[in-house]
Structures are given as structure tokens and as C-alpha cells.
């Protein structure tokens, strides 16, 4: 049985997250704490497999609690997921604390359950696995934001503004060209489909022919991207290769 510790001072949100986890129907023991002091006591008395930490706690911040947890040898590489309303804190979390990911409030049940399942099927990470997940850093309003390449749905550029559509939301960056973003992202993670678009092949649901272009519909994402005639053959060939590999 896996032990999950939720550290959240808001009782309603704590109960909501607990319910989401229990609905997964797995052999999971969900423990709760409303502050950092309680959380550390629980993590000392029990072997925790996955931490969900709210960034804002009443006694000390979730970041400080995570640092203290990391000082315990058993928890050097245990999964930590931060719960936050602001992505600006997450660069520090990734660089210093080596958290795996973060979830933005309000919490989406599907996203939370998917990541819980994914992490608990790989119960104890090792250093190599944690360094293999490809990512980029984007500066937004003076804050460096870490974005995982496999979470980018597509990129759209218009009027000198680059919009990164990700499974967690949209990020707008001024004066960033499509050529620059393609050179910045890990090789193969994005494919240019149009003079203004680059797409994640792995997240495509279907491709439809319209009057003047081809339209891409993605899995679990409402907005659509386009394929221009110049790029159509290359995109179609890569899609076929992707299907064969799968």
C-alpha cells in the first residue's frame, strides 16, 4: 500500500484532494496535515511515497518544508508535487528542491489522478530518470518558468507574440520567433506545421481538411492548430512514422 501525504491548510481543499485520490480505487493510504509541523511529524512516523505540498502554509512555506523533507536520507528522491496558485514559485522548486511537478489551483481531478498513478507506478525515482524529462525555460514578466516539452500541445506565433499552448494552460512571450522556439525546444518535441505553428505530434487527435488549409484537433485541448501546404507532406509522414513506432 502506498502512503500519500497531503499538506494543505484549507480543510475544504484538503478534503477535495483526498476524495480525488480515494476515487482512484487503488490501495492508497491518504494522510493529512494542515501545517508543516504536522507534516514533518507524520513523515517521520510513516514512510511516505508521494507528497502533495501546498506552497502557502500557515507556519512555514511549502518550499521550506520540502527542503526539510529532503534532508531526511530516505526522502532524498521521493516524489514531491506542489500545489499552488502562482507558477512564479516553481522555478525555485525545480532547481533547489527537485520536485517532480506542480498542480495549479483550482485542481483538475483528471490531471491530479493521472500524475498520481504515473508516479506511484514508479515508486522510487532515481537521479537519471529525473534528469531525462526534457524541458525549456521561458522568461515571462521577469520570471523564468520551466515548461516540460511533452506538455506543450502546440506553439502559435502572431504579431511578434509567441503563445505556448500546454496541457496546463497558455503562456505568452513577446518578441519570440517560431524559429527561436524550435531551436530552443528539445529535438523532435515539436514539428513545424505552418509558418505560424509548431505542433506536438504525440498529442494529435485528428487532422481535418478545410477549404484553404488543414486543421489539427488535439487530445483534451479545445484550441486548434493549422497545417500549411508547404509543411503538409512532412507532417503527414512524421505522423505515420509515429503511429508505426507506437
Q: Any idea of the CATH topology of the largest domain? A: Rossmann fold
Q: How far is it from the N-terminal to the C-terminal residue, by CA?
A: 32 Å
Number of domains: 2
SS field, number of helical segments: 8
Q: Would you identify the CATH H-level superfamily of the largest domain?
A: Response regulator
Which percent range describes the beta-strand content? Answer: 25-35%
Alpha-beta content class:
alpha/beta
CATH architecture heading of the largest domain = 3-Layer(aba) Sandwich
- The ordered H/E elements are EHEHEHEHEHHEEEEEHEEEEEH
- Fraction of helical residues: 25-40%
CATH structural class of the largest domain? Alpha Beta
What can you tell me about this protein's structure?
It is a single chain. By secondary structure, the protein is α/β, with parallel strands linked by helices. It folds into two domains: 2-132, Response regulator (Rossmann fold); 135-245, OB fold (Dihydrolipoamide Acetyltransferase, E2P), CATH 2.40.50. Helices cover 33% and strands 34% of the residues. It has eight helices and 15 strands. It has a five-stranded parallel β-sheet, with helices on both faces. A five-stranded antiparallel β-sheet has the order 10-9-8-12-11. A three-stranded antiparallel β-sheet has the order 13-14-15. The longest helix has 17 residues, at 229-245. The relative contact order is 0.09. Residues 125-131 have low confidence and may be disordered. Residues 3-120 form the Response regulatory domain. InterPro entries: CheY-like_superfamily, LytR-like, LytTR_DNA-bd_dom, Sig_transdc_resp-reg_receiver. GO terms for molecular function: DNA binding; phosphorelay response regulator activity.
Amino acid at each position: 500500500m502506498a502512503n500519500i501525504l497531503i499538506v494543505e491548510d484549507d480543510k475544504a481543499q484538503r478534503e477535495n484532494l483526498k476524495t480525488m485520490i480515494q476515487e482512484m480505487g487503488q490501495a492508497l493510504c491518504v494522510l493529512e496535515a494542515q501545517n508543516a509541523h504536522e507534516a514533518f511529524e507524520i513523515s517521520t512516523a510513516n514512510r511516505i511515497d508521494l507528497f502533495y505540498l501546498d506552497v502557502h502554509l500557515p507556519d512555514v512555506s511549502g518550499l521550506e518544508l520540502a527542503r526539510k523533507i529532503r534532508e531526511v536520507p530516505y526522502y532524498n528522491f521521493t516524489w514531491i508535487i506542489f500545489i499552488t496558485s502562482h507558477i512564479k514559485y516553481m522555478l525555485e522548486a525545480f532547481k533547489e528542491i527537485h520536485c517532480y511537478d506542480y498542480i495549479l489551483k483550482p485542481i483538475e481531478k483528471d490531471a491530479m489522478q493521472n500524475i498520481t498513478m504515473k508516479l506511484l507506478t514508479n515508486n522510487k525515482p532515481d537521479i537519471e530518470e529525473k534528469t531525462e524529462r526534457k524541458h525549456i525555460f521561458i522568461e515571462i514578466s521577469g520570471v523564468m518558468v520551466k515548461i516540460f516539452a511533452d506538455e506543450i500541445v502546440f506553439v502559435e506565433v502572431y504579431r511578434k507574440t509567441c503563445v505556448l499552448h500546454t496541457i496546463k494552460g497558455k503562456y505568452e512571450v513577446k518578441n519570440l520567433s517560431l524559429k527561436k522556439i524550435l531551436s530552443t525546444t528539445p529535438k523532435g518535441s515539436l514539428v513545424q506545421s505552418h509558418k505560424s505553428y509548431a505542433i506536438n505530434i504525440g498529442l494529435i487527435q485528428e487532422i481535418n481538411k478545410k477549404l484553404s488549409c488543414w486543421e489539427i484537433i488535439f487530445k483534451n485541448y479545445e484550441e486548434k492548430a493549422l497545417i500549411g501546404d508547404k509543411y503538409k507532406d512532412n507532417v503527414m509522414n512524421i505522423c505515420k512514422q509515429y503511429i508505426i513506432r507506437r
